[in-house]
């Protein structure tokens, strides 16, 4: 059975991102894909220290926190999906802290010439913006998370972009969202 890791990056525990992730878990289950959800609010992740430890030690971070759980989940997932609200065209600050701790994964390639993952897989992003759509609204999220996927040796298969949730919540768009999620899952499985 394929496994999907969903990292929920919202600071709110029961907002639009949570509702969308609930639909996603159902959609994955219908396709016989096991899903594991990591809620950023339930993870204690410290900031990267830029200490250089991972430069000298392959796939090792000196900080002992919940990021070790994230690293292990990255290795076991066939699909990795980041779901986050958009703040100033980027991911939330809590999710950005997790992204910064992926420096160790980058160093696997850069300093050690080895991949962090051996399992093939694909990635997806779900970006949720309160504001109505405007140019480059999701550029920061895609650039930041796209680099994580690059360093995980996973192509970004899909970026679901949802605008205007301040005026029309996720629960009010269930049919459209379920269709978009089905399209995203198809892109991951292709």
Brief overview:
By secondary structure, this protein is of the alpha/beta class. It contains 7 helices and 5 strands, in the order βαβααβααβαβα.
Tell me what the structure shows.
The structure is a single chain. The protein is an alpha/beta fold. The protein has one domain: Flavodoxin domain (Rossmann fold, 3-Layer(aba) Sandwich). It is built from seven helices and five strands. α1 links the parallel β1 and β2. α1 (16-30) crosses α7. The longest helix is centred in the last third of the chain and has 16 residues, at 174-189.
Report the β-strand fraction as a percent range.
Answer: 15-25%
**The first-level CATH class name:** Alpha Beta
Mind telling me which CATH architecture this is?
Answer: 3-Layer(aba) Sandwich
Can you tell me the residue ranges where pLDDT is under 50 for at least 5 consecutive residues? Answer: none
Rg computed from alpha carbons, rounded to a whole number of angstroms:
16 Å
CATH superfamily: Flavodoxin domain
Write down how many β-strands occur, each being a DSSP E stretch of 2 or more residues.
5
Mean pLDDT rating: 96
Shape: globular
The succession of helices and strands, N to C, reads EHEHHEHHEHEH
Strand order of the largest sheet: 2-1-3-4-5
CATH topology title:
Rossmann fold
- Count up the domains: 1
Keywords: Flavoprotein, FMN
Domain NADPH-dependent FMN reductase-like: 4-129
Pfam family, one: FMN_red
Protein name: Flavodoxin family protein
